[in-house]
Amino acid sequence: MNPRLPYVLLVGAAVIIFILSCMLLSRGGRSPSCESQPSVVEKTGGVSQSLVFADLTAEEMSQVVRYLQGHLGVPLVEASRAKPSDNCIASVDLQVPAKAEVLRFLDAGGARPPREALAVLYFGNQPEPNITEYVVGPLPLPAYHRDVTVQKYGGKLPYHRRPTLAVEYKQIGGFLKSQVFPSAPAFMQQVMGYDGANLAVVTAAPRGFQSGDRVTWFVLFQNVSGFFVHPVGLEVLVDHSSLDVSQWAVSRVFYNGQYYRDMAQLESAYVQGRVSVEKVRKAAWDGDFSSMKPRAPAAALFPVQFEPQGPRYSVRNNLVLFQAWSFAFGLSASTGLRLFDIRHRGERVAYEISAQEALSVYGSNCPGGMSTRYMDGSFGLGRYTSPLVRGLDCPYSATYVDTHALGAGLKPGRRKASLCIFEHNLGSPLRRHYSNLQSLYYGGLVNSALVLRSIATMGNYDYVWDFIFYQNGAIEGKVQATGYPSSSFLHGDGLRYGNRLGEHTLGTIHTHFVNYKVDLDVGGVKNSLVAHDMAFEVTRAPWSPEQQIERPRLTKKVLDTEDQAAFRLQSKMPRYIYFAANSKNKWGHQRGYRIQITSFAGDHMPEASSMERAISWARYQLAVTRRKEEEPTSTSVYNQNDPWTPTVTFADFINNETITNEDLVAWITAGFLHIPHSEDIPNTVTVGNSVGFLLRPYNYYDLDPSIYSHDGVFFTSEQDFTACEINPLACLPKTASCLPSFPPFSYDGFRNM
């Protein structure tokens, strides 16, 4: 035997063992990382054109501020330290160009509209204090400004209508702490346990009963996590109408069902033993029952969605492309998320889709709760957009978009992860059919849609705003409500106004209403509004005349005027209502886009109310009007603090003008009633608290456009449906057996508060 043979055999065995080990490790170890496909390539000029709708950059905001500081001829104080008697810049946002100018640029090779900003200034240091709006341009190097206040509103804007700045709340807090609470030392120390920091204050709104009032109820809570459900029973009515802070005063005080002239009278009654005291148990810093800290330990990870071959959409600046869709997006400081130039298969179907307002009307037997009608646009649906948490607010692998906002110190701040964009597999078919009659086959399409999302935190409530783009040409606008319920101190007949959520906590009944602007351009700018529905007709059976048949038939009506197209909340609306084009599809039908609303709204407010006209958009589940540049929004940020003389009254938009073959806008209202219950503690869930609308093609195409989707599946009984070339689902074990490359978790929501 060759003496080297054992060594050769040993080396050979070692090599075989090494190879087998590598194979086993490769199977049982980490899967390969997913490979991204090349990004979608935009058509030439697409990104450049979309910038006509782009939000202001940080540099543009800074340029506007510098221009105003140097060209108005009056001293301007930073909003972060301005007194009511000062002049200050309240906000700077994009001035969206006129639609006609934009369309000439986009569609006819016209000049690009000048880029401009809209600046809102508070002039408190003038003989007649007022609010003034200036258009400033052209950006990025401003050279002019023009006062558009009278042009927009028909007159000057009274100063008392101004939305409340953060600094004014801070000044009110200082007034309470330094002057109001010290006037009742025994009560505050013995009943409230007040130490200067253990109470939080929440504002009611509007502020009074008539134009000119600026008198606000402030409700006190324990300053703990989730303080919105920890009322202490004390509420203070502050008159802060004077521009001289030293003249501010307390108008009334409320404690546990009783009203007092001021804190001194409450103190006197308390010392004399004439106050019915309900001492609230001090809550732990984490809020105890209001804590959002999980009550269970972490376990198996929840399912995570990922893109095995990378995103199938692209985001360049403010332009999004996804399969047959393209659109530009932006974020208004007051109204929040908005879309422009929405196209499907290259054809514009809508010029603008935007949120307009979110309204909540509360009931209670406490003054702060019973007088609250929040119009959140005044506070800022875009201004209070929350930084999004990766993997929870949106899928982990979503695209997160930063935005900029002008801070109270007149310096633009970057808001990290304000928006997210992602493709979402809804886990259900968009369409499918299984055939077991005659021929045997299966055909279908996964319902994978693109989502654009922002979340606005308006004090206690968080609103999740979505626009969703489906492969069949449908668009959905949806809002989901979550966050903490608002509450009042439980006393007397409180259970007439809600449910008990804690020892002293009344979850107060309230409504939610949201309003959208939908400027559809179906097959062109000029459209008509058409209603289709169904009615039963009674007829004799042709083959058996003695028998009767009740059969459904199609009803059709063209709605010619704005009055005909204004559908009150509780009125019966045609089930198919659509914007009709002047062109027809292959089968001779007018091409259209149908409006379908998901809403559970009841009454918004009795129309006899002195403030109802300020929210008159909420009278209508749907109202279609002629589009006018002078009617850009359904409401105004100035309506909150003076609803008795509203700056914008939507009801006046509806004046029976003809709407046949005109540029039309649909104003959509959706809402629901919320009666807080024990399961709203610690937080209201989004399930069941979602409303919105769908825009669906109706004879717009010759057939369902999703049949052209690359995601379609079809196989017959005679085909090898396990083969990739026949059935793409068969490829998943190979193409989706990779691991996504997730970036490290980060969050900037606690910086630059």
TrEMBL record:
<feature type="domain" description="Copper amine oxidase N2-terminal">
    <location>
        <begin position="76"/>
        <end position="144"/>
    </location>
</feature>
<comment type="similarity">
    <text>Belongs to the copper/topaquinone oxidase family.</text>
</comment>
<keyword id="KW-1133">Transmembrane helix</keyword>
<dbReference type="Pfam" id="PF01179">
    <property type="entry name" value="Cu_amine_oxid"/>
</dbReference>
<dbReference type="InterPro" id="IPR016182">
    <property type="entry name" value="Cu_amine_oxidase_N-reg"/>
</dbReference>
<feature type="domain" description="Copper amine oxidase catalytic">
    <location>
        <begin position="305"/>
        <end position="707"/>
    </location>
</feature>
<dbReference type="InterPro" id="IPR049947">
    <property type="entry name" value="Cu_Am_Ox_Cu-bd"/>
</dbReference>
<keyword id="KW-0801">TPQ</keyword>
<dbReference type="GO" id="GO:0005507">
    <property type="term" value="F:copper ion binding"/>
</dbReference>
<keyword id="KW-0186">Copper</keyword>
<feature type="domain" description="Copper amine oxidase N3-terminal">
    <location>
        <begin position="162"/>
        <end position="257"/>
    </location>
</feature>
<keyword id="KW-0472">Membrane</keyword>
<dbReference type="InterPro" id="IPR049948">
    <property type="entry name" value="Cu_Am_ox_TPQ-bd"/>
</dbReference>
<dbReference type="GO" id="GO:0009308">
    <property type="term" value="P:amine metabolic process"/>
</dbReference>
<keyword id="KW-0560">Oxidoreductase</keyword>
<keyword id="KW-0812">Transmembrane</keyword>
<dbReference type="GO" id="GO:0005886">
    <property type="term" value="C:plasma membrane"/>
</dbReference>
<dbReference type="InterPro" id="IPR000269">
    <property type="entry name" value="Cu_amine_oxidase"/>
</dbReference>
<dbReference type="InterPro" id="IPR015800">
    <property type="entry name" value="Cu_amine_oxidase_N2"/>
</dbReference>
<dbReference type="Pfam" id="PF02728">
    <property type="entry name" value="Cu_amine_oxidN3"/>
</dbReference>
<feature type="active site" description="Schiff-base intermediate with substrate; via topaquinone">
    <location>
        <position position="461"/>
    </location>
</feature>
<feature type="transmembrane region" description="Helical">
    <location>
        <begin position="7"/>
        <end position="26"/>
    </location>
</feature>
<dbReference type="GO" id="GO:0048038">
    <property type="term" value="F:quinone binding"/>
</dbReference>
<dbReference type="InterPro" id="IPR036460">
    <property type="entry name" value="Cu_amine_oxidase_C_sf"/>
</dbReference>
<feature type="active site" description="Proton acceptor">
    <location>
        <position position="376"/>
    </location>
</feature>
<feature type="modified residue" description="2',4',5'-topaquinone">
    <location>
        <position position="461"/>
    </location>
</feature>
<protein>
    <recommendedName>
        <fullName>Amine oxidase</fullName>
        <ecNumber>1.4.3.-</ecNumber>
    </recommendedName>
</protein>
<dbReference type="Pfam" id="PF02727">
    <property type="entry name" value="Cu_amine_oxidN2"/>
</dbReference>
<dbReference type="InterPro" id="IPR015802">
    <property type="entry name" value="Cu_amine_oxidase_N3"/>
</dbReference>
<dbReference type="GO" id="GO:0008131">
    <property type="term" value="F:primary methylamine oxidase activity"/>
</dbReference>
<dbReference type="InterPro" id="IPR015798">
    <property type="entry name" value="Cu_amine_oxidase_C"/>
</dbReference>
<keyword id="KW-0479">Metal-binding</keyword>
